[in-house]
Amino acid sequence: MSKIEGALSRGESTRRIYAAHGVLGYLLSGFGMILPELRQDLGLGRAEVALYPSAFALGLVLVGLCGDGLLRALGAQAMRSAIGAQIGGALLLASGFGRLAGGVGALLFGLGLAIMVNFAPARFREDHGDLAPLAIAEATGMASASSVLAPLVLGASLSAGKGWHMAFVAPPLVAALPLVVRAMPAAHTREAPETRRPREAPRAPSGFFLLWLDVVLVVSVEFSVLFWAADFLQVGRQLASGTATSMVALFVSGMATGRIASTLVLRRVPRPGHVLAGSAAMATVGYAIFWQIDHTAATVLGLFATGLGVALLYPLTLGAVMASWPDHPHRAAARGALASGCAIGLAPLCLGMIADAVDLRAGMLLTPLILVAFLIRCIVREVKSPALNRGVCS
Q1: Does residue 144 come out as left (phi exceeding 0), alpha (psi in the -120 to 50 range) or beta?
Q2: Is the full-model pTM beyond 0.70?
Q3: For this UniProt entry, which segments traverse the membrane (predicted)?
Q4: Domain 12-183+206-393 carries which CATH code?
């Protein structure tokens, strides 16, 4: 895996995608924070409330299967459509109209996110070429930075007895308005090769599935923590709802810190493949501290270290997927969205089912098992053939 070189040009389209990721980050983090509240409001079991993330993930899967064609159909309206679907889904989730409305809202939110995670990497690949992983990392860093606000705002609202509904939808709605009003600038680089050859039905390159599986593993970890940490703190540590929700900000703060520092890290580490293994190891240790030690300082350290370790896993693994199929960026991005959908649809649901069958503490063990599996894969890949990692950041 080669070292990243060159300067990243952040034009208007790149800045607007970053801003859209800010809206997405708040809603995504907020979605995880409101799951315990939805469970209590609707009288659901953990496996039942996990169906909301599964409905959300279904949107990712649907777009992942046909995302390249959908993006061509949406054209310049792709980002507006993504933001509109996210906000519409959030409004339905907060409407209080019952389980069905909430499920439809989660699905709509997932569709909006899926369009964004298809559109953004492909656009970055078109605009920035081999520097696309840096743009992906910075965009996800913006999402992580804004996601810190969601548990803080929601936690403060819950602690004040104001509920979660307005705190969930009002901030992203206000932030999204300027992005919806103004159209997205046209791509200023080469046309994507796949749009020039619409009749071609390309096959994924050799080794693509394993790179795709990496995305499944790391997204499973990120969303299992995001969706279940607050519930674990309430049930396992006996924290009040507002306090538990606010403390999850430590996890997303760790992710934001790591992703904001991504450019510096990836330029200075000679073999960014080592970043994946080191990050996975840090996340595993941090999660062990959070899960095992019932002490405020350990919870703070563990959540932040887990977030810091997780931070670069998604940008780097998605960058590998994009780089492995450079002639078809939209198709590669669609398959990346499909990987995220599979992870979000399955891992939190499996965790919830284990929690209902045994207890939440046992269910939370699923996350470090996934981390260890990914860490072993990183180590084996480095030992077997370091050259296999060349695509992660190239």
Answers
A1: alpha
A2: yes
A3: 18-38, 50-71, 100-119, 166-187, 208-230, 242-261, 273-293, 299-325, 337-355, 361-380
A4: 1.20.1250.20
